[in-house]
Design a protein that fits this description.
The chain is 30% helix and 34% strand. The chain has 166 residues and is α+β, with helices and mostly antiparallel strands. The strands form 2 sheets. It has a 4-stranded antiparallel sheet with strand order 1-2-3-4, sandwiched between helices. It has a 3-stranded antiparallel sheet with strand order 5-7-6, with helices on one face. The longest helix has 13 residues, at 41-53. The mean pLDDT is 94.
Length: 166
């Protein structure tokens, strides 16, 4: 990728940008498993301050050409490490999420196996995960706040670091 991409620690000034990105209705629909009320900035900030304070979480801001474009992180869910990421919609389809997740998995969190979840119909996010070496290992259902209903999701696992195009 010819454009400059960087991962760095999250700073407080990133949070209002993240909040604006997650207000997008299409992004919420695709992510599916979101906050009950994505317009509640106070709840959003409280959530981010909690996750930033959690010592087991690894959270990075994605910078593209000097602009904050999203985040990539890992956290523990029921004792298992999981990854998640969010990009502002205007940055979708540019290879940024794939680059950021590959870099994150190679440089920031090398624990394996590591897991991910994706709504079954979120083909873009599923493709990012698969490009990074994740394999589908199962299916589940869960209540998706952004859709107001239970939906199906894929459970994915990464056993090894994918070093393609790093």
């Amino acid at each position: 990728m010819s454009n400059k991409l960087v991962l760095r620690n999250v700073v407080n000034d990133d949070l209002p940008i993240f909040f604006e990105y997650q207000l997008d209705q299409e992004a919420n629909y695709m992510a599916a498993f979101t906050a009950k009320d994505p317009t509640n900035q106070e709840a959003f900030m409280a959530h981010w301050h909690r996750i930033l304070a959690e010592k087991t979480n690894i959270i990075q801001t994605i910078i593209f050409n000097g602009q904050v474009v999203g985040s990539v992180s890992s956290y523990e869910d029921e004792g298992k490490p999981e990854v998640t990421y969010w990009l502002g919609k205007e940055y979708w389809g540019k290879g940024i999420a794939t680059w950021a997740l590959k870099e994150f998995l190679a440089q920031k969190n090398q624990i394996r196996p590591i897991y991910a979840r994706v709504a079954k119909d979120n083909l873009g996010s599923r493709r990012v995960l698969e490009k990074c070496g994740f394999k589908i290992i199962g299916e589940s259902k869960g209540f998706a706040n952004a859709r107001g209903q239970e939906i199906e999701e894929f459970l994915l696992e990464l056993r090894e670091v994918s070093t393609d195009s790093l």
